[in-house]
Each structure stands twice: as C-alpha cells, then as structure tokens.
Design goal:
The chain is an alpha+beta fold. It has 2 helices and 8 strands, in the order H-E-E-E-E-E-E-E-E-H. The chain has one domain: Jelly Rolls. The strands form 2 sheets. It has a 4-stranded antiparallel beta sheet. The protein has a 4-stranded antiparallel beta sheet with strand order 2-7-4-5, with no helix packed on it. Strand 4 and strand 5 form a beta hairpin. It is a single-pass membrane protein; Single-pass type I membrane protein. Belongs to the EMP24/GP25L family.
C-alpha cells in the first residue's frame, strides 16, 4: 500500500512540472533567415542554445557569425545578438502568447550556414492543490542537469563535425596545391632539358 501511495505521489509531482526539450537542425542559405515560435504561458521558462557550422566545409576559412534574436508576444525584442557563432538564452515568460526566435544569415551573401539548436524549458501546470515536496525539487534539478548534459553533448558533436570539415578541406587544398607544384616542377624540368638540348645542338650548313 505504501508503495502504491509513493508511486501516486511521484506521478502527481511529475504532473506539476513538465520539462520539454526539442532539438533541430536548420540550413540558412546565403542571405537566408529562419524563424520559429513557441506558445508559452506566463511563468513558463524557455532556453534556446545554438551552434553554427558552415555548409560548404570551409571551416574556419570564413566567418561563421549569424544574427539571433527573440521577440515576445508584443513584438518587443528580448534578446538580439549579431555576428555570433554560438550562444544560449534563457528567459521566463512575463506574458502569455507566442514567442518568436530567429536565425539570420542575411549578412552573408555567398556562404550557407547550418545551425544546430536545442529548445527546452519548464512548462508549469496548475498544481496549487499539491503541497511542496522535496522529491519535486530533486526531479526538477535532475531534469535540468540532464538537459544541460544533452545540450553539451550535441554542442561537442557539432564542433567535432565542424573541425572535421575544416581538416578535410585543408587536406584537400594541400593535396591539390602539391599536385600543382609537382606539375610546375615537372614542366620546368622538361622545358629546361628541351632548351639545353637545342642550345648545344650542332647545326651544319651545306
């Protein structure tokens, strides 16, 4: 009986707070923009984390900065960042309504970007009839830590892919440059042999 009551108590605690986490990847074309929205109620908490990589595999050869901003239901700007390659923004909704967050590559007219981003938050459900429980605090804390670890792992995976693209791009350029140098050296050697042969050639006039 005590076990059943304990399970019911845990179920009520889980209903009192709902953690939401969503991961996305979006491609921003040259001079492109993508916007997303979340419908929040007052006191809901939302966090957006993002990391930028290039689509062409050029890595650090170009600037990976994009613009990022968040608007509230009244279209007021809560956060605006320019020319950033990664970031995190957490806020608590002061108004109920639709919150819009955008990623913009409009400053770049030639290079595409890929943005990996996570959206997670805490959606509070009416549970005024329930009493505060230490187990609830522990569950909230554990859920927050899990979200942070997940975000960090996804960030590291994206960084690893970006660095791998940079290394592959660098190796490719070194390979083609070495082949070009080899071709120039071989062509120069052939020309020199041909020229010296013509220079020392004895001509007889009849």
């Amino acid at each position: 009986m005590n076990r059943i009551l304990s399970l019911l108590g845990t179920f009520v605690v889980l209903l009192s707070v709902l953690h939401v986490a969503v991961a996305h990847n979006v491609r921003l074309g040259a001079a492109g923009r993508e916007c997303f929205y979340e419908d929040l109620r007052q006191s809901d908490q939302m966090t957006v984390t993002y990391q930028v990589s290039d689509q062409e595999g050029q890595g650090s050869s170009g600037n990976l900065g994009i613009d990022f901003w968040v608007n509230d239901p009244r279209n007021a700007v809560l956060k605006a960042e320019k020319d950033v390659s990664h970031g995190e923004f957490t806020f608590t909704a002061q108004l109920s309504g639709r919150y819009i967050y955008c990623f913009s590559n409009e400053a770049s007219g030639f290079v595409s970007r890929e943005v990996g981003f996570n959206v997670h938050g805490v959606v509070y459900i009416d549970a005024s009839e329930t009493e505060a429980d230490p187990l609830e605090k522990e569950i909230k804390s554990l859920s927050t830590i899990i979200d942070q670890v997940k975000d960090e792992l996804q960030y590291l995976l994206l960084r690893e892919r970006m660095h791998r693209n940079t290394a592959e791009s660098t190796n490719s350029r070194v390979k083609w440059w070495s082949l070009f140098q080899l071709g120039v050296v071989a062509g120069t050697g052939i020309f020199q042999v041909y020229y010296l042969k013509r220079f020392f050639e004895v001509k007889s006039v009849v």
